[in-house]
């Protein structure tokens, strides 16, 4: 189910498959054949293939692909980084079955071929590229010749998506069994081209031992948690979301969030507004209710009605002590909620204080709280926590943040990561850069709150919210403004419920 494996977990999958009776050489053979199949789908027999093989098992896959392609009538040359005698194990075995010449990689001219098989480094990339490897990767990228990458484009870190000084730009990538974080996280994802996942004979049953906790975000991950409303349902069964408006200068943000919450299916939505912004909400969607709410006491009074079971605090709320008090009041209500934008920035360098407030929430873990920072807000919030701020990849940082706060964290961007305190994480990849527009995040916070109002659990609500937001963005595409996103949801939801069979 869209599991994403770290390179260590992938190594474990290999070992478990081998222990269960499939020799490593057979896994490598299937891997190399899968690569050859992809090359043969894009190119015709007779074309010139250059297989660039590295010193480890990734190179072994390259030797297999070279042999299979030569057998299918391609004109194949093999170039090896390192000495042939230094190859070990299955890779040495695969090289022994290659009967053609093996050129030194230093002499390989990528321009003299029609397609390149990149089998330099895969899961074993251990340091930044330098020397001959660096020069070769730069020559390949400069050649403009299409590349099919084996496992990951060489130079991309499979665990983090980082480019280790330089990396191949692939036209297509073939990986094995399950994707790795580096296929989904930026910048790695942008080096992969379309990613094919090849079955190399590793049984799915190994996952019961490995217990992966990371997924590519998609409907299968949370479909059971978000169903169409019951035929006999009523609006209170779909929850009541409350969106706290900022003052006169920031009322639009609340309206965007409120519309998102309504469209995703919250039964009722109320905008709680300070008196000075009351008149500005006259143009709100007619379906949204309006209540006056001045300061933390006003918010607490509205949330004392337990039917208001989910809130959004933060969009255009203003930065400072007042907003920290509003956050405290919202958390103290016991209702589920989303902390976004100014609610996060108000805790600049005070993530420990926010963690204490979250730990004290009366509903405990059953009170679903989702934080939706973009990178800027994340950096500000965790200024006081180097272990989180510099935990490594975006995946690791989101996980560290969720664990330290005891709440679900949505670290937004082109490769949004959703992380739960228990270690579960999902990486999102269905977005579009047209989502990078003012107010887009406000709509997301409303969508997530609308899902929380419908009793979708925190992690699933965050994953589903991010996915629907991105689908809505793609449905609109060029020219998108945030106002369009809620109104794109009905079509997206219709397709989702049709597919979900509900
Ligand atoms: N049985 C298995 O384990 C299978 C492994 N497979 C392939 O094996 C690959 C992993 O193989 P390995 O663990 O041997 O790792 P790699 O082949 O990815 O790389 C390891 C080698 O590269 C060297 N190296 C690492 N970083 C370097 C750098 N920056 N500059 C120069 N040299 C560097 C290491 O010293 C080592 O010799 C996977 O990516 C996949 O392609 C597949 O054949 C499927 C089965
Ligand atoms: N390049 C991109 N590709 C896909 N999604 C993106 C990209 N850039 C931003 N987004 C998404 O757009 C939204 C922007 O939210 P945010 O930064 O809070 O904007 P605002 O504060 O203007 O509402 C987030 O959901 C983010 O994940
Ligand atoms: K590779």
UniProtKB/TrEMBL annotation:
UniProt binding sites for AMP: 412-416, 441
Cofactor or coenzyme needed: Mg(2+); K(+)
Highest taxon, organism lineage: Bacteria
Gene3D superfamilies, alphabetized: 3.40.1190.20, YjeF N-terminal domain
Xref: Pfam families: Carb_kinase, YjeF_N
Amino-acid positions noted as binding (6S)-NADPHX in the UniProt annotation, renumbered to this chain: 57-61, 122-128, 151, 253, 374, 442
Keyword Endoplasmic reticulum: no
Assigned EC number: 4.2.1.136, 5.1.99.6
Key words, A-Z: ATP-binding, Isomerase, Lyase, Metal-binding, Multifunctional enzyme, NAD, NADP, Nucleotide-binding, Potassium
Domain YjeF C-terminal: 218-496
Domain YjeF N-terminal residues, every copy: 10-208
Cofactor note: Binds 1 potassium ion per subunit.
Stated role: Catalyzes the dehydration of the S-form of NAD(P)HX at the expense of ADP, which is converted to AMP. Together with NAD(P)HX epimerase, which catalyzes the epimerization of the S- and R-forms, the enzyme allows the repair of both epimers of NAD(P)HX, a damaged form of NAD(P)H that is a result of enzymatic or heat-dependent hydration. Bifunctional enzyme that catalyzes the epimerization of the S- and R-forms of NAD(P)HX and the dehydration of the S-form of NAD(P)HX at the expense of ADP, which is converted to AMP. This allows the repair of both epimers of NAD(P)HX, a damaged form of NAD(P)H that is a result of enzymatic or heat-dependent hydration.
PANTHER family named in the record: ATP-DEPENDENT (S)-NAD(P)H-HYDRATE DEHYDRATASE, ATP-DEPENDENT (S)-NAD(P)H-HYDRATE DEHYDRATASE FAMILY MEMBER
Protein name: Bifunctional NAD(P)H-hydrate repair enzyme
Organism of derivation: Alsobacter ponti
């Amino acid at each position: 189910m869209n599991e994403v494996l770290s390179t260590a977990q992938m190594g474990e999958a290999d070992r478990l498959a081998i222990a269960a009776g499939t020799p490593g050489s057979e896994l490598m053979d299937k891997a190399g054949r899968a690569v050859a199949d992809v090359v043969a789908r894009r190119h015709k027999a007779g074309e010139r293939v250059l297989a660039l093989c590295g010193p480890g098992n990734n190179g072994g896959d390259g030797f297999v692909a070279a042999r299979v392609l030569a057998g299918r009538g391609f004109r194949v040359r093999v170039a090896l980084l390192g000495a042939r005698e230094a190859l070990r194990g299955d890779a040495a075995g695969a090289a022994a079955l290659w009967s053609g010449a093996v050129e030194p990689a230093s002499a390989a001219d990528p321009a003299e071929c029609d397609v390149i098989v990149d089998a330099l480094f895969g899961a074993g990339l251990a340091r930044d590229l330098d020397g001959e490897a660096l020069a070769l990767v730069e020559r390949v990228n400069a050649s403009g010749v299409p590349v099919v990458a084996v496992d990951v484009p060489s130079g991309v870190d499979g665990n983090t998506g980082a480019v280790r000084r330089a990396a191949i730009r692939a036209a297509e990538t073939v990986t094995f069994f399950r994707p790795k974080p580096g296929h989904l996280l930026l910048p790695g994802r942008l080096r992969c081209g379309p990613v094919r996942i090849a079955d190399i004979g590793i049984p799915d049953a190994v996952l019961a031992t490995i217990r992966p906790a990371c997924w590519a975000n998609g409907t299968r991950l949370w479909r059971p948690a978000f169903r169409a409303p019951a035929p006999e349902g009523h609006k209170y069964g779909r929850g009541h979301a409350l969106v706290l408006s900022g003052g006169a200068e920031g009322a639009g943000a609340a309206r965007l969030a409120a519309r998102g919450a309504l469209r995703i299916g919250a039964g009722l939505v109320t905008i709680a507004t300070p008196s000075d912004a009351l008149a500005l909400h006259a143009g709100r969607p007619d379906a949204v209710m309006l209540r006056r709410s001045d300061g933390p006491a006003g918010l607490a009074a509205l949330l004392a009605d337990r039917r208001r079971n989910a809130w959004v605090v933060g969009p255009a709320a203003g930065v400072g002590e007042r907003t920290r008090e509003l956050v405290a009041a919202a958390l103290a209500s016991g209702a589920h909620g989303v902390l976004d934008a100014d609610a996060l920035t108000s805790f600049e360098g005070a993530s420990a204080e926010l963690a204490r407030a979250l730990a004290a929430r009366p509903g405990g873990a059953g009170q679903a709280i989702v934080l939706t920072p973009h990178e800027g807000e994340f950096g500000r919030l965790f200024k006081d926590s180097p272990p989180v701020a510099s935990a490594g990849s975006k995946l690791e940082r989101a996980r560290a943040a969720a664990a330290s706060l005891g709440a679900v964290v949505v670290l937004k961007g082109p490769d949004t990561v959703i992380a739960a305190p228990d270690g579960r994480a999902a990486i999102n990849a269905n977005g579009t850069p047209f989502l990078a527009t003012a107010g887009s995040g406000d709509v997301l916070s409303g969508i997530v709150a609308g899902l929380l109002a419908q009793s979708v659990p925190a992690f699933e609500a965050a994953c589903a919210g991010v996915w629907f937001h991105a689908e809505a963005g793609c449905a609109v595409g060029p020219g998108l403004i945030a106002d369009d996103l809620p109104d794109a949801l009905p079509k997206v939801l219709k397709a989702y419920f049709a597919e979900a069979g509900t």
